Amino acid sequence: MIHLDDTTIIPIGCSCINQFQIDFFFGKERSRGSLFQWSITTPRATVEVLEQARAGTLAPLFAARERFEMEGAHLHNRCFDGFYHWHEDGEAILGHDAERFARFAEKSLHLMSNTFAATGPVWLLWSNIQPNLRQEIEDNTRLAWADFRLTRARRDAIRTAAHNVFADPRFVFVGRKEDVDAELWGDEEVVLMDLPRSDKFRGAKGLYAEVFARIEAAA
Question: What superkingdom heads the lineage (predicted)?
């Protein structure tokens, strides 16, 4: 997440490549924490988070230990259909030290506040292009890669939910052709990239140059 004059760019899924690319392009020192930045989330989970934010019922879903479980080696929020805190030490957070979970919950509430306090023009950045994402999903979660494909129905659901939360949201959806339904090819909000799958997760510096140039030009 980053503030650019009167514009804010906020990652909303599916993975952390969005925040890495923000840090590469604009400088890590300028970025701010957000709820989605280091998570792996399905399109459905993104919609669910936005809907709970709209209803004013999101905070309690991150504030109680019983909402969470370990799925493999990763911390999963059971309130959502695929929301993983991918870079958190879930074993420690759910261990016997209540203070450890309290710090995690406080951090989550702070990130939530950052994410949904944005005013003015907001660009919401969604991507399923992270090179290692499919392998990570298939190896470490109960989910199928099909749950992360961008379809028109999922794109429309994200847009609808976001419009109910943010006053003036704009969108960029980034993916490979093979992971985006053909009916969305050529859509003005969709950026297709030919990025090979690999064990990498940050992407090269400049990968999102086209995305950020579009955002800056529209600001």
Answer: Bacteria
156 CB-near residues (< 8 Å, 6+ apart): none
State how far the Cα of 120 lies from the Cα of 61, in Å rounded to an integer: 27
**pTM > 0.90: yes or no:** yes
Radius of gyration of the chain (CA): 16
33-88 per-position pLDDT tens digit: 999 999 999 999 999 999 999 999 999 999 999 999 999 999 999 999 999 999 99
Burial of 132 (0-12, 13-18, 19+ CB in 10 A): middle
Range of the domain at 54: 2-218
What angle (nearest 5°) sits at the alpha carbon of residue 134, between those of residues 11 and 144? 100
82 dihedral zone (left: phi>0; alpha: psi -120 to 50; beta): left
How many folded domains does the chain comprise? Answer: 1
